[in-house]
Write a structure and sequence with these properties.
The chain has helices spanning 16-27, 45-48, 80-93, 181-191, 217-225, 227-248, 251-268, 272-277, 295-299, 345-348, 357-361, 394-415, 424-438, 442-445, 467-473; strands at residues 5-12, 33-37, 100-102, 106-112, 117-122, 125-134, 156-159, 173-177, 196-200, 207-208, 290-291, 304-307, 311-314, 318-321, 326-328, 331-334, 349-350, 379-381, 419-422, 481-484. The protein is α/β, with parallel strands linked by helices. The protein folds into two domains: 5-141 and 341-484, 3-Layer(bba) Sandwich (FAD/NAD(P)-binding domain); 150-212 and 222-334, FAD/NAD(P)-binding domain (3-Layer(bba) Sandwich), CATH 3.50.50.60. 44% of the residues are buried.
Length: 485
């Protein structure tokens, strides 16, 4: 058996989180690290999601690293190909590609208490690492519903995150199951070309207009020649979103903003029955807010039928709704999102006794600042429990976490520590504080059931306060950890 490769820091995933981590480690003077990526390029979710209309619902100038601005965004809200090009270019500019091993799938990682290191098994060999960074992200494994009869359906099926570009949808009868962020984007792109589109909607989402527009060449040149102009726009976008974030903590204010969504629906859907089916029964913000200028218009098309019901089963050539309606289709597209409540990492990361993170969590994820987990020394996770503000760019959170990891590794090196393990009492107090902060927010009190909440009603996703407050908290503090030399 070949000897294990040994590194100081092993990073799993080369999406936006993994790339940011590599850059911050390099900037801190830490070069003994490796990034493992199962795919063939950087980008993560932006590499894998290529469905028609795929794009970002955060303005481009803010959905990018603050330390690596891009003056050449072509639109106010960028599309998937441009974001993927940006992440590639950023990785190249900072020399990250030479730190990545592509085509490597991590099978398991276990903490060795005696050797005080992580022992990692992959399909390409074994690794040992002092520090393990799980940067695979939550938008990683497509969530496929357990629909009875799926195996006997004779038509085409695929998930939006695994779009089959070889399958021609033109002229086909297509069923779309799910109305999440992906479906909101691809439904308008495919609706006109198909013979018939059946949309199965278990719960209607809130959809706001998307204030998107091309960025003129002259503005791009201004941002290139005067970096301060781009920074000012970035800060302005940040300030507007931070102000809107107050409404997430004040349901009364959110109901005022909700009027804009209702007006958008009324303007685009004239049929009262359809409009009623598309009107959510919960407060705006309780589930993810979606942005689209064409979704409602597409659903009002003559060849589209909205089924306000869950799917009961698939038959050989048809889809049957929970209300008994049946429609013959040639293809089924799942727009059902990702495994967010229990990310894949929970199943393959083990403590010293061999208990997985999933066993520790028992269906209800807990962490400290979404980054460190008691009982798992020298492990840092990205976009973990209760670290995602619903109103802000996730890139801001990722940057703060990457800095946190670099600071932790630097401190360990400077102080000669072999391990750091967040104190259980520190993690417990943090979670109590966050859950109390979430209690009055629209995430918890908005009257919906979302992926933000686990089966017990515990919010495992959201940060209840401002992004600025999160950034201040995301500072590595030695006193929060039990350490050993």
């Amino acid at each position: 058996m070949a000897a294990a490769k040994s590194v100081r820091v092993l990073v799993i995933g080369a999406g936006a989180s993994g790339v940011a981590t590599a850059i911050k480690l390099r900037q801190a003077g830490i070069t003994d690290f490796t990034v493992l990526e199962k795919g063939d390029d950087v980008g993560g979710a932006w590499r894998e999601n290529t469905y028609p209309g795929c794009g970002c619902d955060v303005p481009s100038v803010w959905y990018s690293y603050s330390f690596d601005p891009n003056p050449f965004w072509s639109r106010f809200y960028s599309r998937q190909p441009e974001i993927q090009r940006y992440l590639r270019a950023s990785a190249r500019r900072h020399g990250v590609y030479e730190d990545i091993e592509f085509g490597v799938r991590v099978d398991s990682a276990r903490w060795d208490a005696t050797g005080r290191c992580w022992r990692v098994e992959t399909d390409r060999g074994r690794y040992t690492a002092t520090v393990l960074v799980a940067a695979a992200g939550p938008l990683h494994e497509p969530a496929l519903p357990d629909v009875p009869g799926l195996a006997r359906f004779t038509g085409k099926t695929f998930h939006s995150a695994r779009w089959d570009h070889e399958y021609p949808l033109a002229g086909k009868r297509v069923a779309v199951i799910g109305t999440g962020a992906s479906a909101i984007q691809f439904v308008p792109k495919i609706a006109r070309g198909v013979e018939r589109l059946h949309l199965f909607q278990r719960t209607a989402p809130w959809v706001l207009p998307k204030l998107d527009f091309p960025i003129p060449w002259t503005a791009q040149q201004l941002f290139r020649l005067v970096p301060g102009a781009g920074n000012a726009l970035r800060y302005g976008v940040y300030a507007v979103h931070e102000a809107a974030g107050v409404a997430f903590r004040r349901e009364r204010l959110m109901r005022v903003l909700q009027r804009a969504a209702l007006l958008h629906l009324r303007r685009q859907v004239r049929d009262p029955a359809l409009r009623a089916a598309l009107t959510p029964g919960f407060t705006l913000g309780c589930k993810r807010i979606l942005l689209s200028n064409g979704y409602y218009r597409a659903l009002a098309g003559p060849n589209v039928r909205v089924h306000p019901t869950a799917v009961a089963e698939l038959r050989e050539r048809s889809v049957v709704g929970a209300d008994g309606t049946e429609c013959e289709v040639d293809a089924v597209i799942f727009g059902t999102g990702f495994e967010v409540t229990e990310p894949p990492i929970a199943r393959y990361v083990f403590d010293a006794e061999g208990r997985s993170l999933a066993e520790h969590w028992q269906g209800s994820a807990r962490a400290y600042l979404g980054t460190a987990i008691a009982g798992f020394p020298n492990l840092f996770t990205f976009l973990g429990p209760n670290i995602v503000p619903g109103h802000a760019s996730v890139l801001g959170t990722i940057e703060s976490q990457a800095r946190y990891v670099a600071d932790a590794v630097t401190t360990m090196r400077e102080r000669g520590w072999a391990s750091v393990d967040v104190r259980a009492d520190v993690q417990r107090r943090f979670n109590e504080e966050v859950q109390e902060g979430l209690r009055p927010t629209v995430y918890n009190a908005g009257g919906c059931v979302s992926y933000y909440l686990d089966e017990t009603g515990h919010n495992i996703a959201n940060w209840p306060w401002s992004l600025a407050r999160l950034d201040r908290r995301l500072r590595f503090r030695a006193e929060d950890f039990e350490t050993s030399k």
